[in-house]
Design goal:
The chain is α/β, with parallel strands linked by helices. About 20% of the residues lie in helices and about 25% in strands. The protein is flat, with a radius of gyration of 26 Å. It starts with a strand and ends with a helix.
């Protein structure tokens, strides 16, 4: 692990205004990043939620990152970095910190890896132990293929994209630059397509691929199916959590984000800057406009063409109350008919 950094080094790298504390605050050594409530005198922390300001005065942190509105309270406590968006500053700080700590992959192909004829691997790329690079595949400069990785024939891994251990990028699939695929992600398995025939199912071969843009992050054990004829498309900047299923021929617009266990059925079209909470389900062949936000556990059964927040789940309750409410819901149709009949009898 790297040694401590000076507060002055942090500000020099990321900006912000260092305020308060002793005259030599810029020389203060920082050994870790920590939550404000558990930080010690060698920790750098942040406060982005004004409702938690009560924690500021009692924090032992060497320095706290705050917004301009909290400058006075923070300076009264000690050293502070003042910045317009503390949460964004913290995000960039974690990247800077991780880059210092992360081991630099060794360029080259591990002796145990299998590289088929015609594959093109940049000299600065790293291909890990027991990996497979198929014929005609391309691994661009600075890309990393983790242990037991699989890059299928004709597939492309963009510059500085990292495939963690056991990631599969299927035949002819493409991911752009600076992507991150976490362990066990599978890109380009067959979509779920079958034609019924006299009580049996006949497989529809999935002849498309998956095309993923730049700066996309895909969580552990998430699966993105290849298209049946056209391609499944994930545009630039999309962020997908763990254990997500994206069906064949889905399109997800740029900078959308989906939390864990979301399911998107085939041929759905998701707009740009959309979000979906954990375990939300989007049925096939539907369209979501740009800036549509789906709450956790919501099942989307119709297209949504207007931006906004949408929810559709039955609130949790004790089981006896839930059963009574569910029984009432089953009677709503007949109650509606009875109400209409009564309205017709009114003068």
């Amino acid at each position: 692990m790297p040694g401590p950094v000076r507060l002055g080094d942090v500000v020099a790298a990321l900006g912000g205004e260092l305020c308060g504390g002793p005259a030599d605050a810029a020389e203060r050594p920082i050994t870790r990043l920590a939550p404000i409530e558990s930080a010690d005198d060698a920790s750098l922390s942040f406060l982005s939620n004004p409702r938690l300001v009560a924690q500021l005065a009692g924090s032992a942190a060497a320095c706290v990152i705050v917004a301009p509105a909290l400058r006075d309270q923070a300076v009264a406590r000690g050293a502070s970095i003042v910045t317009p968006d503390p949460y964004l500053y913290f995000a960039r700080l974690t990247q800077w910190w991780a880059a210092r700590a992360r081991a630099v992959p060794v360029a080259g192909v591990h002796p145990s890896a299998v590289v088929e004829p015609g594959a093109r691997i940049a000299a600065s790329a790293s291909v890990g132990p027991f990996s497979f690079i198929g014929a005609g595949a391309t691994v661009a400069a600075g890309a990393v293929i983790g242990p037991h990785g699989h890059v299928g024939a004709g597939a492309t891994v963009g510059e500085a994209t990292r495939l963690a251990a056991r990631v599969t990028l299927g035949e002819a699939c493409v991911i752009g630059a600076r992507g991150i695929l976490h362990p066990g992600a599978v890109i380009g398995a067959d979509g779920f397509g079958f034609a019924p025939s006299q009580g049996t199912w006949v497989k529809i071969e999935q002849l498309g691929a998956v095309r993923i843009g730049d700066d996309v992050e895909i969580g552990a054990n998430t699966c993105i199916d290849r298209g049946a004829l056209g391609d499944t498309v994930i545009e630039d900047g999309v962020k997908l959590d763990n254990l997500i299923q994206v069906g064949h021929n889905v399109r997800i617009g740029a900078h959308s984000a989906m939390a864990g266990c979301v399911g998107i059925a085939g041929s759905a079209r998701i707009g740009r800057h959309c979000t979906a909470g954990g375990a939300a389900m989007i049925l096939g062949h539907l369209e979501l406009a740009d800036h549509v936000h789906i709450s956790a556990a919501t099942v989307v059964t119709r297209s949504i063409l207007k931006p906004g927040q949408y929810s559709g789940f039955f609130p949790v309750d004790d089981n006896a109350t839930w059963e009574k409410n569910a029984a009432t819901l089953r009677q709503l149709h007949s109650l509606r008919d009875r109400l209409r009949a009564l309205e017709k009898k009114l003068p």
